[in-house]
Prior knowledge:
- By secondary structure, this protein is an alpha/beta fold.
- Helices cover 41% and strands 18% of the residues.
- The strands form three sheets. It has an eight-stranded parallel β-barrel with strand order 1-2-3-4-7-8-9-12, surrounded by five helices.
- The radius of gyration is 18 Å and the shape is globular.
- The protein starts with 9 loop residues before the first strand and ends with a helix.
- The relative contact order is 0.13.
Amino acid sequence: MSKEYCVNGAGLGLRRGHMMEELLEVNPAQVQFMEVAPENWIGMGGRLGKRFREYTERYDFVTHGLSLSIGGPTPLDLALVKDIKTFMQQHNILKYTEHLTYCSDQGHLYDLMPIPFTTEAVHYVADRIKQVQDILGQRIAMENASCYATPGKEMEEIDFLKAVLEEADCELLLDVNNIYVNSVNHKYDPITFLQSLPKERITYCHIAGHYNEAEDLIVDTHGADVIDPVWAILDKAYEAFGVFPTLLERDFNIPEIPVLMKEIDQICQLQQKWSCSNNTVSAHA
């Protein structure tokens, strides 16, 4: 039996630059869901607020937070979590996701900092995720994060990630670009990492571009086209886990909508490829 997901198909991260009729008229067979950072839209009124409502009435939506700071040393911003719950209810948003990082310490750091890969950190982060889930009344999804250093490391990234997901009983927002980035920066095999993930916890997926700072240093920017090795990881993910919803992230250097749609179409083509393959296997089982 195939798994049911909160959304389906291919998705696009909605940015304010997209708030135009051109995107509203995109074929729903291409873009089936959208994602926003709730912090950028909570309490938004006026023309932009009205336009945002047009989108949430037309598309399924998920949220990807920026400032929960789940691994941070200071108490969780529970007022923010309650605002996010209200925002999701107002717009019938289906899922809340965040980064498995921290971004504040007596104030915002304006970057996503790596959580130490330790047993102590697993317990600490899992307890905070449970707090958020209790307030929202649903399981949230944590994203496997890109990182450029591993301070205090006592276990491998994959073991830390799986331990947090298990102890918190939360879901996984799978980011295939982050797997590729970390595999280069920390010299591990991306497919081995991918195949070690818990299939049952994947809720949807991100794919994005990045910047090559040096041969052995990649920066996760969401500001470039997706490269072939990252597409190859997505292809392997569908092969290993079946087809799941996948969203294209593009945060700056944003091209015209027809250019973005070419990458959306590439997601759809891979999904169709593996949907047909799985149906063929089922028919002959």
